[in-house]
Amino acid sequence: MIQTLLKKIRKSDFYTSKWIVLTIDIAIVVQTFFLSYLIFYNFKLSLYNSFLFHQVPLIAIVAFISFIIIGSHKGIIRHTGINDAARVFYGATLLSFLLILAVYVNRNLGEEHRIKTIIPISISVLIIHYFLNIIVLISSRFVFRQVFERLTSRNKSIKNVIIYGAGDSGMITYASFVKNKNYNVTSFVDDSKSKQQKRYDGKKINPSNILTKEYIIKNKIDDIIISIQNIDSLNLLKITDALVELPLKVKIVPAIEKWIDGDLNIKQIKEINIADLLNRTQIKINNSELEKEFKNKVILVTGAAGSIGSEISKQLTNYKTKNIILLDQAESNLYNLQQDLISRKNTNLITIIANIRNYDSINEVFKKYKINIVFHAAAYKHVPLMENNPYQALKTNVNGTKNIMDLATEYHCEKFIMVSTDKAVNPTNVMGATKRIAEIYAKCLQQNNTTKFITTRFGNVLGSSGSVIPLFEKQIKNGGPLTVTHKDITRYFMTIPEACQLVLQAGAMGKGGEIFVFDMGKSIKIFDVAKKMIQLSGFKYPEEMRINIVGLRPGEKLFEELLGDKENTLPTYHNKIMIAKVVDFNFELIISKINTLSKTNNFSDIEIVKKIKEIVPEYKSQNSKFEKLDP
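^ that's the sequence the OP posted. Answer follows.
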């Protein structure tokens, strides 16, 4: 029978009846009443002790009434928490209040109405009884919880963990682990000398240099949890450099914005990945400003099926827009986006299959829907492909963008927000140069136009189509090796949601004519990213997986820039967004050249690139057949 009971307990389907709990509580109250008498009379029997057994029924009845009123017996004992303890406290308080009241009223009754057995009860005894009840009743619940947890965890393997970070986030993380008996927090690690060698709840705070392979093996550490909020990418990379070499799993606590209702759930703590390393600092946007900007507006998103366009579309659904027009030529991806948004109860969507290079079909969209705001994310973005296909880059990135801009002007749209790239700065390839022409054309149109043309410029986004992270993930899955074009090549990184939040914010704050550049943090070596991804995937570099250097691709440069040589920035009220100050140019001449270029149909690749270089004189080809066109 005992074995069956233990089995039930271990299966966690055994619950103590609330009536059993109530009976036990009343029994405890009676016992503490006896103890109160003994304490008050110095553990000596006296004349008054003879009344003690006659007073017990009163104590039991009042306890029953008090606990029923408060409901202290209804909690699940094995999950006892602060709220349950509070209910026990209230129950004990009500019990003592009623007993003291009964004694006081009885003493003030006439001789013939008094209950003789109550007369000898001292108020001091009841006060002692009150404090004993609080201590014993609450303690008994926590003792039961501990016993239950030990019984249920007897056959479970307990993981030993270290928490990296002894600040507020580390303490909250520790509290989460304390609730889960499958984990044992052995200690903390912190780089702050003021915290080192101190203790928190008995757990020592050690310096990070204690984390050696020998220490981890000796103390049988399974996981290390990084719990530091608002840590930047470079510091996080520095911390993980040594950790990934150790025989344990490296996990990370999510940013506080992602906690569930402000509380950290232990299930949210996941193994660290490359996105955590490259982008940790969370941005803040002015939602009230965006709500005002997009309320009751018809918004067109071009390239809506792409990585950036789809995220912009998803974020726009958070605001009370009149309609969101999703436009793309990629049928399957656009359908998937449409179904995703519909599943989230979005009903104000208009989905259109169209190519921005086709002026007539795009014209019909503008004519029919009276568009207020355009987010232009449609573009060809792959550098090597566009280097081999200048005509296609020209027709989409220049002609297609020009079509959208011209129609936004003709139909008096309020704003046109273009997604550009850091590759448009001092371009070394066709793709970057065509995006720079689109930036220039937007600046030209702003001169005599009511439509506000706004450009947003940023670097690589994690996880976007064709970006380096998905490529590395695929190569790791296939067993390697990973391919990097140059050991010193660096890039700026940002997550797709963060980039799109900044695009929306920049679109809202733009007055027209600005090129907004985003604070991308520090540029990071792609080689280091590859090495880190190998380590995070559980492989050793270079013993188990190699990295091959394959050479720079056509048009590729080692370092990306967010500003041109003659540009500097002005701050905005958002610390992640700046305005690039660009050099002035002859607008009429530039527009004439762009119009001529856009009409190009029969020119060779060399002739097309030559004309592009006339419009963008800072465009100097690298690792490309077009280098011969540069002086």
